[in-house]
Amino acid sequence: MQLRLGTFRHLVTASAFLFPACAAVQPDFLLPSIEADRKLGQEVSKKVEEEMGILEEVGLSSYVASLGQRLAAQIPNRQFPFTFQIVDQAEPNAFAVPGGYVYVSRGLLALVSSEEELAGVLGHEIVHVERRHTARQLQKARLPSLLTLPGRAAGWVIGGELGEIVSSPFEAVGAAYLSAHSRQDELEADEVGQAIAARAGYDPRALAGMLDRLERFERLLTGSERGFSFFATHPMTPQRVAEITDHAKGIAWTPRPGIAASRADLLRRLDGLQLGQNPAAGIFRGRQFLHPDLDFSIEFPRNWKTMNTRRLVGAVAPDEEALAYLGVRGKGTDPSRTAEAFVQAVQREFGIKPSRSERVQIGQWPGHVVTLTDTSGGKPVHMHFLWVAARGIIYQMVGLAPDQHREVLRQAALSFRPLTPAERTSITETRLRVVAAREGETLAQLSRRTQDQWKPETTAVVNGIQPGAPLKQGQLVKVAVRQPFTAAGK
Fold first, then answer.
1. Which of 43, 69, 402, 473 is the most exposed place for a label (fewest CB within 10 A)?
2. Bridging pattern class, strands 305-308 and 323-331
3. What global pTM score does this model have?
């Protein structure tokens, strides 16, 4: 979550966003027009930037874009102009949206060991766009059950105050509400993508190595570390790597010089890449969320699925019947004024009076709490609102839930507070660093010497080397190095 004013204003619904009139209720065999793909892609790309964030590292960003354009140039009579960008996502991921927008995550770039591997991934995503797989994928996307919460007032809050929040994870195409590509689409993207890479001068076998490394990397992650990533929408099968390798045998190709002059040049471009959570957008420690730049902390209910985007942070109950999200309402210093205007609107529209509406103090910050209960749907839905004014900004937390989640929502709202000095100084960031090995050094020894945060087996997978093999003098190895994080303006 980063500071963006108006998070709860100018609201749109997920259905209107993802299914414009020209694309609504089309069966799989009848896709909307090419122009509709372009228009939808422009809208979705804006949401990707708003929700996930685009990495603005000029050297690396221009490198990915140049490689992507080299591949796209191999498509005869292509239907779309292409753009290639890096999303600020820790998990290894790559995805495309209609109209020619292709994205790779910084988490995926950290795993790349050769330009050929990255070419294989980008070629795969290019095919998803050109063959319009992504357009079909969006048509199959599902709305979360949160949108079916009962009650007129709850529906009004979702459609208005919460409309943008509830749809946010749905709008960001990298999120888990998208359906997976079909096996047929994946096979086509693999094979045609290999041909595109080969025509651009890259070994078509490299895609198999990249997918194998992705799969082995994910197997090493713990449950808490495993987020939404490439295989969530690109299903892996036991025979897929073998099929890609076998298919490559029939593709003729002639090597061409890469955009990166050498592997060392590629690693130089990756050096300094951020790994893991980005503290500038806030970090989760279990169920606690800490934001060093905005200087606040909040704790969400235990075992709820958390989410952090550029516009908001929140959590959803395991049964998907309750949610809690925090965002920025706008500039201001009087949260009670905002709260009172909201209460009046609810009373005017639905005749519902709050069971609680009072000023509160959140540390040194003034706040206002409102609790409403909507019984119009038969199943009571409790709505909790907290407005807090901090440093000229009014934050708004919204929670909706049936009775069984009522108390945990209240506790979450009241946990909003400033960071303690100890919390602020404890926040660190992790960066990818490229180091030179010493003759005969093992990965375990190199890890200790460089204070590598990865386990040796993870470092081996990331670098595509055997864990127990002795290293050579000067051999370049990617490691993860932790360093203090300095908040903006500090």
1. 473
2. unpaired
3. 0.82
